[in-house]
Write a structure and sequence with these properties.
Layout lengths: L1 H13 L5 H13 L5 H14 L2 H11 L10 H10 L4 H14 L6 H13 L3 H9 L10 H13 L3 H13 L6 H13 L3 H17 L9 H14 L2 H7 L6 H6 L5 H13 L3 H12 L3 H15 L3 E5 L2 E5 L3 H8 L1
Antiparallel strand pairs: 1-2
Length: 333
């Protein structure tokens, strides 16, 4: 009973915050004091991973180097522990490279993808890039799963240029984009204001959507609104409206477009040129629900598009005044 109390005391004492650093150092020293039995090390490593004890995981991993036997553990857990212990990305990548060279049977894209998937969830793009860089030396190359993991990570970190580079590399390596990845590629192009690329992916999505029966929405309203706004900005709204023929919930998407006078004017021009009376009417209704200043601008632009020019004389001079001037009159008064 006395012995149990003493052991419990020292265990609790070692877990106190003030002694945590010492406990971690002692743990590491114990592992490095000699080559432990691989089975015991494996048990300790598994327990450390389960407990989330990163220092113990790294200590067990380092001890395994002296055993001549690969640890039975998910490498992603070891990499996470190394990162938590402030090891540099290059150092961790070198560690993995040496491990795979020493144990070729453990070297596979399945193992690499497990690491990349974990890093992707942690948004650790720096280390993911270092891991990808060692693949050629290991005679490995990215596969479809690898590409999808990297693209998702770059999109989540808003590294759109990197996401576009990986998408292009994926296609160049004869991995056709799935419908889901085409949608991701469209979002990347929109965020980079690349209208031509966005339309390429939009047309591919539209073809797949039509082939599946076209019962669901082609795009979320927010993404459709982003495409419409980019079309207005780039001066291609007329062509885009033709591409959107037959797409349901277009008016709802227009409602989500951040509307200014330039965007409203581009939309109205396109709707009138394409004889889309439904869009013109919807824009008029939309204008009536906007704040007063913007409403005056939008309504006057619509009137200017419809009203004939006003001609009046003054002495020997004739002046031709377009009804657009009414917009400024309303704004001034």
């Amino acid at each position: 009973m006395i012995l149990s109390s003493v052991v419990a005391y020292y265990i609790l004492h070692s877990l106190r915050p003030g002694n945590q650093g010492y406990a971690n150092k002692q743990k590491e020293a114990d592992f490095h004091s000699g080559v432990s039995d691989p089975d015991e090390l494996g048990t300790a490593l598994h327990a450390a991973c389960e407990a989330g004890d990163h220092a113990a995981v790294v200590a067990c991993w380092d001890a395994f180097k002296l055993c001549g036997q690969a640890p039975m553990v998910q490498l992603s857990q070891v990499v996470t522990a190394m990162r938590a212990c402030k090891r540099h990305a290059q150092s961790i990548a070198d560690e993995l490279f040496k491990f795979f060279q020493k144990y070729p049977r453990e070297c596979s894209m399945s193992a690499i993808n497990g690491i990349l998937d974990s890093l992707g969830k942690q948004l650790d793009a720096e280390l993911a890039t270092q891991v990808v860089d060692i693949l050629p030396s290991l005679q490995l190359s990215l596969n479809r799963d690898s590409y999808e993991i990297l693209i998702a990570m770059h999109v989540r970190t808003r590294m759109y240029s990197e996401a576009r580079r990986v998408l292009a590399e994926m296609e160049a390596n004869d991995f056709p984009l799935t419908v889901r990845l085409v949608f991701v590629a469209l979002k990347v192009a929109l965020n980079m204001s690349d209208y031509a690329e966005a339309m390429r992916h939009f047309r591919n999505l539209k073809t797949s959507w039509q082939g599946s029966g076209g019962t669901e929405a082609l795009l979320p309203k927010a993404v459709m609104a982003q495409l419409i706004r980019l079309g207005c900005k780039e001066g291609h709204m007329g062509m885009l409206l033709l591409e959107l023929e037959g797409i349901p919930w277009l008016e709802e998407a227009i409602d989500c477009v951040p509307m200014d006078s330039v965007t409203a004017d581009a939309l109205l021009d396109a709707a009138q040129n394409c004889a889309r009376a439904d869009i013109v009417e919807h824009l008029e209704l939309l204008a009536s629900s906007r704040p007063v200043a913007l409403r005056c601008q939008m309504l006057c632009q619509m009137c200017a598009k419809r009203a004939p020019q006003i001609v009046f004389a003054s002495g020997a001079h004739f002046y031709r005044v377009n009804a657009v001037i009414a917009k400024w009159v309303v704004l001034v008064f």
